[in-house]
């Protein structure tokens, strides 16, 4: 019998979040799992790594088929810690999530959940991030489960193109309303910040970062369109950030004349 | 007379780092500047934003042509704070750096300095990140200055292609040895982690994240090649992470058959 796949699981909402628990419940039927996830919420950590402070790891449980660790670091730290210290062998797959809240469009760049998947990809392992478009702690992850199972099994079977991971977002609707899965491009969007200015008890100013998501992209081939129309969006994400389309334009600039 | 350009300056090594001081000395000759930079080192923060804690800002100096603020947040927070709260108008340019250490190749993804530039780009302002390939606090930034001036002036004059910013890396050699500027693609590379395991005074394990940079790319069109051969590398960086090359491959997968 073929060896069961070995799956590394991470997220950014923390090891005790309902989203990662839902993910674990699906993945432990598919393979042996190792969970290395933050010991506290790390939303918005992007691709941060911990270089000016130390990192701690706690073993939460350890059985033959399932190891669970919490880590004081960022989601990317968790992947590095797993790959280089905790995992018994190189994982066959990295799965991150299920995130509480959307990581579609430009959110991918701020997301600790997707950065964990991107780090898996950098390290050469097929990697997928899952997010449910509902920020609530009480969000219903049940409708996600068959799709997580399907996508994970397909990636285990087919692999992924080199240097590419998947950003999967799931609309926050009931199972019957989900229309299917669409392969999309990242919608062009940004956050219009609102820095909420307050005074502390001693009269000092401080700020909370908040904002409104603004989609600038009408394209029906985007993740935003798919999610708005009750499709699950999959955007293939690359870790090569080179803007190949503009290389020739820039080469034509006269950077090397005398200055 | 045409209005002087208004330039937003940031970094990740902190507002007092020699690298940003060198950058300021060049930019204040070109335009009016607003500096919003971290109040402490934020290397490796990637595109992190502060959403579970508050942010403080301190005014360090404020004259007609030069405003300098320190901010308790990440480099990306600094850009958001500047664009939405502190700047007197939308800046004409965002410049981040000069980073103490290389942000070439895959380092771009971990870099707070480059994330500040990417955030400027997301917010629609031409943005450039500069890094010197020398981590030392005492690094000599003098050879960088004429190139910073040249690149900044060119970007102010020509603008940048939409949704693209520049990742500029400068080799740590004397002025005479710099061979010129090359437009490059991001080299394929990764960090091979070494998690340095230690025991605290009470016998508890902790780790320092460290590692060795491994270039996997022999291409003479890469930033690594350019820097190794004493060229300044410029990689155009895009904030759309979609892997367009793989969209058709993934569309051919049968995601929507019954599961």
Give a verbal description of the structure.
Two copies of one chain form a homodimer. Chain A has helices at 18-30, 75-86, 107-110, 112-122, 145-158, 223-228, 247-251; strands at 6-10, 32-38, 57-62, 66-71, 93-100, 127-132, 164-170, 180-183, 189-199, 205-215, 231-238. Chain A is of the alpha/beta class and 259 residues long. The first copy, chain A, has one domain (6-187, 219-241): Survival protein SurE-like phosphatase/nucleotidase (Stationary-phase Survival Protein Sure Homolog, Chain: A). In chain A, the strands form two sheets. Chain A has a nine-stranded mixed β-sheet with strand order 3-4-2-1-5-6-7-11-8, sandwiched between helices. Chain A has a two-stranded antiparallel sheet with strand order 9-10. The longest helix of chain A has 14 residues, at 145-158. The termini of chain A are far apart. The model of chain A has no long low-confidence stretch (mean pLDDT 96). Chains A and B meet through helix 2, helix 3, helix 4, helix 5 and strand 8 of A and helix 2, helix 3, helix 4, helix 5 and strand 8 of B.
- Give the end-to-end Cα distance of chain A, rounded to a whole number of Å: 68 Å
CATH superfamily of chain A: Survival protein SurE-like phosphatase/nucleotidase
CATH topology assignment of chain A: Stationary-phase Survival Protein Sure Homolog, Chain: A
Sheet of most strands of chain A: 9 strands, mixed
The CATH C-level name of chain A is Alpha Beta
Strand content of chain A: 25-35%
Arithmetic mean of pLDDT of chain A: 96
Shape of chain A: globular
Q: Strands across the major sheet of chain A, in which order?
A: 3-4-2-1-5-6-7-11-8
| Element order of chain A: H for helix, E for strand | EHEEEHEHHEHEEEEHEH
What Rg of chain A, in angstroms, do the CA atoms define? 20 Å
- How many structurally independent domains of chain A? 1
Under the CATH scheme, the architecture of chain A is 3-Layer(aba) Sandwich
Uncertain parts of chain A: none
- Quantity of strands of chain A, as a count: 11
Quaternary structure annotation: homodimer
Query: Structural class, from helix and strand content of chain A?
Result: alpha/beta
How many helical stretches of chain A?
Answer: 7
């Amino acid at each position: 019998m073929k060896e069961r796949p070995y799956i590394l699981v991470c997220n950014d909402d923390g090891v005790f979040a309902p989203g990662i628990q839902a993910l674990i419940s699906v993945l432990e039927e598919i393979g042996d799992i190792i969970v290395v996830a933050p010991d506290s919420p790390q939303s918005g950590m992007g691709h941060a790594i911990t270089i000016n402070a130390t990192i701690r790891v706690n073993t939460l449980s350890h059985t033959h088929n399932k190891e669970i660790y919490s880590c004081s670091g960022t989601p990317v730290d968790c992947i590095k810690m797993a790959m280089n210290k905790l995992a018994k062998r190189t994982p066959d797959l990295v799965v991150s999530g299920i995130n509480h809240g959307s990581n579609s469009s430009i959110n991918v760049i701020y997301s600790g959940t997707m950065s964990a998947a991107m780090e898996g990809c950098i390290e050469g392992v097929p990697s997928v991030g899952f997010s449910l478009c509902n920020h609530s702690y009480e969000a219903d992850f049940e409708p996600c489960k068959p799709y997580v199972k399907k996508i994970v099994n397909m990636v285990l079977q087919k692999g992924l193109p080199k240097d590419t991971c998947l950003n999967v977002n799931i609309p926050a609707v009931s199972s019957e309303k989900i229309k299917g899965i669409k392969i999309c491009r990242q919608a062009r969007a940004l956050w219009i910040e609102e820095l909420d200015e307050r005074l502390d008890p001693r009269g000092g100013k401080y700020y909370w970062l908040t904002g409104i998501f603004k989609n600038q992209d009408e394209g029906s081939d985007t993740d935003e369109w798919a999610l708005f129309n009750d499709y699950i969006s999959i955007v293939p994400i690359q870790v090569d950030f080179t803007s190949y389309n503009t290389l020739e334009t820039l080469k034509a600039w006269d950077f090397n004349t005398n200055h």
